[in-house]
Amino acid sequence: MFVQQNTIQALFDYVKKKLTGAFSENEIRNMYKILICFRLKWADSEYLLNQDKRLSESDLLFVRTCINRLLKNEPFQYIIGETEFFGLKFKCNSNALIPRPETEELVADVLKTMAHFGNPKIADLCTGSGCIGISLAKKLSGAKIVLTDISEEAIQLAESNAKLNEVKAECLIEDLFSDSAFKGWETNSFDCWVSNPPYIPFKEKSEMEENVLGYEPHIALFVQDLNPILFYQEIITQAKLYLKKNGWLFFEIHPDFSAEIVSYFNKYGFVNIELMKDLQGRIRMLKGQNA
Predict the structure, then answer these.
(1) Is residue 2 part of a domain?
(2) How far apart are CA 78 and CA 93, in angstroms?
(3) Is the pTM of this model over 0.90?
(4) Which of 110, 156, 207, 213 is deepest in the core (most CB within 10 A)?
């Protein structure tokens, strides 16, 4: 075998040797712990208490396969098929973007703003894995959640994640730019819309990391260079029709286009418009209230 002893420590030494240079030691330790716990169905505490456990040959081969995939720049979350977001577990695959920590900040602000709405009706547009809407459903008791995406495969993933997290959500395949979009929706009926739509211009592809560019769905990442705020314009236009008076619209945004999106909010008469920074100090979120 590729390790002399089939112990957790011996296998870690192999993993560290293979991944050093591609990842920091802290990243390697964390990924290794997650891999072992995932493979053996352990809690973190069991990992700490079972360092002397001997692994089977199939366990060793599983870890080696995962390491080889990592070395080909495949995202770790896709390799194990799951990730954590807002304290919840979500299934991951290449049909949707990997939920990211900065989006947790968006969810937190929605929760704070919607705390005093009784049983709010919320739509999560361009939902992908469903991480935003499902997290809101889990934290807002009595909320009615609608998840939409143009991708049938993404909606299937969102449905699976709603079931995994034991929440109810209506999951709809919707093309925002189709004449049939929002057909059957009741006007002035939503308390909140939230969206993390595609917002990276194609001209920025060369700046993207290989593990993102090579594996995550481009339909969820990129927009045409000529009008990178196209999704925001369409969602704001429609939100004016479907949000209740005093209802809220939340976005994750590209920092470079914040002024243009704010201008569009103003054009449609939204008030209490606020730009918010992420933990890295970059403008990342935007909200406005329907007047």
Answers:
(1) no
(2) 5
(3) yes
(4) 110
